[in-house]
Design a protein that fits this description.
With about 220 residues, the protein is of the alpha+beta class. Helix content is about 25%, strand content about 15%. The chain contains 4 helices and 10 strands. A hairpin with a 5-residue loop joins β3 and β4.
Amino acid sequence: KQHIFLLAAMAAVGVMSSDRTQSIGAEGAQANPAMSFFVTSTGSKTANLGGLRGADKICQGLASAVGLGNKTWHAYLSVERDPDNGNKPTDARSRIGAGPWSNAKGVVVAKNLDELQARKGDADVFLDERGQRVPGNWPDSPKPVVHDILTGSTADGRVMAGKTCNDWTSEASDQQAQVGHSDGLGPGGGPSGRYALWDSSHENGSCADTAPRGGGGRIYCFAAK
């Protein structure tokens, strides 16, 4: 009987050990190694991201968390005065390499810059680093809507003067930032006009609070190299 009990106990331990291994494996799952684009799964309450350097660190940190910290990640943000560019303007499109870029599921977002700037937002393509869709105006989306992604850019990826929240260092309530719609959908789920643009749909409520009008202080991240 003792022998039978011992075998049963060992079997139980083996099952628990196996379950634990499976659990750890699931939690430690890494992103598709081909991923070179994502929307951040977390956001900032204000538009003060610590400038371009701070925004890049956000991208790098989230990429590292899913096993892709070996790539150099840049935020898709434009600024009017870039300390790393002689205090001259820097366009978001100039920070992200030449492409192609793929999301967490291996789907190609765009093959090159021209294709990227010409495309529309899409909830099934503009995914976060874990491969999850960003809550927006798509059918049965979870709430709240957070599809307003900070860019400070025009539709062709160039700086929009006065809409960068002082180059992503301001928390002022009387300043705004330009945002794009990751799902390409406007109020009521309509994919028309400027609401379809992934990088330049409208200005947000203010630099002090990114939530009103459908935001969550999220940014786009690209593997520049």
